[in-house]
Amino acid sequence: MTPMSPRWTRRGEGLEGLALSTIYDVARLAGVSPKTVSRVLNGDAPVGKGTREVIESAIAQLGFVPSNAARMMRSQRSGLIGLITGAISMSPEPTQPAGLPELFIVQGIQKALANSGMTLMIADTGGDVAKAAPLIETFLRHRVEGLIYVAEYHQKVSLPQVPGEVALVLANCYDDLDTPSVLPDDQRGQRELVSQIIACGHRRIAYLALSPDVEAGRLRTAGYRDALALAGIAFDPVLLETCDEPDREAQTQRLEVTIDRLLRLPNPPTVLCCGTDKMALEVYGILRSRGMKLPSEISVAGYDDYRVISEQLYPPLTTVDLPYRAMGERAAQRLLSLISGETKNAPAIERVAGPVCWRASVKELCDSH
Q: Which pTM does this prediction carry?
């Protein structure tokens, strides 16, 4: 057998009794040349219908199947995909109210690749983004056909360039190189949430926003303003306040000051939209400490659908789902498409929207005009 000849294994035999052969066995039984058998197996040249049927009959009669390893060697394809994430080392304790975004994205990727025939190799950064570059280099040495990089939150990243023959897809992040990326549609999600709140009769809608220094903060605030504009409601800057702080105690103080200011307005808001579900959790406590009943006296909405929060609060929290698993699935699908050469001129950035999760924390007002 020549070094590049395909190897075959007999069906049903274990490793100890492995029967190996070459295309020469098939060729002898079919009465054709090994090159003709190779053409049928690889589909890289035309073969007459009658000859093809004779060869396929010989393959079936011998009970041989192709060796994946030999095919990979012949095609120089590894069947490997590398995934870089911080989901494993950075996953919080089960008691913490977190959405585990990276882990859910990884689960979506695994689901999409389950029946692809590809092998997924996962490397964890340990929360250190600087480790991404050496991990990419390691994967390239293992001849991966594609790479997926998963970020902790929606952000811009800067990764080393990979060879042109290796496909790369970013999940929950993007770069300045127009690398194919899958992102959450934060602007659309906030717009649809506020639009539904408006449809329930609310006109004074306050927004307790994330910092504009983060992508989600800018986009969700833009979605809030979009919904007001679509409904013909003038934007009132006194109803918009950035309330997230890196320190939890500082954020609580900021929320308390903001809520007290809003409630003292001559025309106070009827609903408080919060940048995240975690923020909404604190808002529930602050409002109740002021003796206010939810949602009869004031409504509250969040964002993320962290179910350990949204479904356990009373009343359950109206919010927007961040579609992490769907993002992971789409990232894997894009990678497989790139590996197969099916680019179809797709835009660099693809946004995935999650649904509004309507629950009892937003009251429907009688007057919808």
A: 0.76
